[in-house]
């Protein structure tokens, strides 16, 4: 897997990450993980990740893409001030095992809609799931990926990450105010949807009632993902690439 890894360790690691990440991490037990976002003050995504507690004073932040590890570490170092913790990018390799649990360190992942475990270690790894199979499972599960469905222009609520990656009851974190304001007093204009389609290509227009309402962001034979205007009802039939497609919630 093309993951990135940032290790955060020290006596203030739990408290610091609790103040910086969008989800609750300080209460995690060793070996447990929580999905989270690292956000700008304006609520834009710096990185999507999972925080894994590896010890009483140590965490590994597993970023969704290896390109996110360096900016994650840089943002955390910039805001660290007097927090007593070390923040380092680790050159580890990751793997995904479907339906079985690999050797530790390991965490369950719901990214693919089936029982799956993720692990990492130094050096090359064997046993990683086939990339094409994992991509098909990811799209079928409606899971957004960095570089296709996610970047710094996407609002977390558009991708449904406000339901999985954000706590609205914890203490303050960067970006909390605009995220909470959108949830309680605003709305998004588009949301990520799954499409059951015979054939689609990334960038294809999604058309409803002769109006372009979105574009395809990821596609495999029979399945696609795309952001679609919120006025289009779920389970509606739309047109993609000249053919009909059935829309489903992501």
Topology:
Blueprint: E1 4-9, H1 13-20, E2 33-39, E3 45-55, E4 58-63, H2 69-78, E5 86-90, E6 93-98, E7 106-108, E8 116-121, H3 131-141, H4 176-185, E9 190-197, E10 205-208, E11 211-220, E12 223-229, E13 237-240, E14 243-249
Antiparallel strand pairs: 1-4, 1-5, 2-3, 3-4, 6-8, 7-8, 9-12, 9-14, 10-11, 10-13, 11-12, 13-14
Provide a compact summary of the structure.
By secondary structure, the protein is an alpha+beta fold.
Task: Describe the fold and architecture.
By secondary structure, the chain is α+β, with helices and mostly antiparallel strands. It has helices spanning 13-20, 69-78, 131-141, 176-185, and strands at 4-9, 33-39, 45-55, 58-63, 86-90, 93-98, 106-108, 116-121, 190-197, 205-208, 211-220, 223-229, 237-240, 243-249. It has 2 domains: 4-141, Alpha-Beta Plaits (2-Layer Sandwich); 189-249, Beta Barrel (Elongation Factor Tu (Ef-tu), domain 3), CATH 2.40.30. The chain has a 6-stranded antiparallel β-barrel. The longest helix has 11 residues, at 131-141. The protein starts with a strand and ends with a strand. The model has no long low-confidence stretch (mean pLDDT 93).
């Amino acid at each position: 897997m093309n993951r990135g890894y940032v290790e955060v360790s020290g006596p203030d690691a739990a408290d610091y990450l609790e103040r910086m990440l969008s989800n609750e991490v300080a209460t995690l037990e060793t070996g447990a993980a929580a999905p989270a976002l690292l956000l700008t003050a304006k609520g834009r995504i710096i990185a999507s990740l999972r925080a894994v507690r590896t010890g009483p004073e140590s965490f590994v932040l597993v970023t969704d893409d290896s390109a996110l590890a360096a900016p994650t570490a840089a943002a955390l170092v910039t805001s660290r001030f007097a927090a007593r913790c070390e923040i380092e990018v680790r050159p580890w390799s990751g793997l995904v095992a479907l339906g079985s649990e690999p050797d530790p360190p390991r965490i369950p992942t719901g990214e693919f809609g089936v029982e799956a475990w993720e692990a990492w270690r130094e050096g090359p790894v064997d046993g990683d799931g086939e990339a094409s199979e994992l991509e098909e499972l990811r799209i079928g599960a409606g899971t957004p990926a960095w570089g296709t469905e996610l970047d710094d222009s996407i609002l977390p609520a558009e991708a449904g990450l406000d339901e999985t990656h954000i706590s609205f009851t914890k203490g303050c974190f960067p970006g909390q105010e605009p995220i909470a304001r959108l949830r309680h007093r605003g709305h998004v204009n588009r949301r990520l949807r799954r499409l059951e389609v015979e054939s689609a290509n990334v960038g294809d227009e999604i058309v409803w009632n002769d109006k372009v309402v979105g574009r395809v962001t990821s596609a495999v034979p029979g399945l696609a993902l795309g952001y679609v205007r919120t006025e289009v009802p779920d389970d509606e039939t739309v047109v993609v690439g000249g053919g009909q497609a059935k829309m489903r919630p992501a």
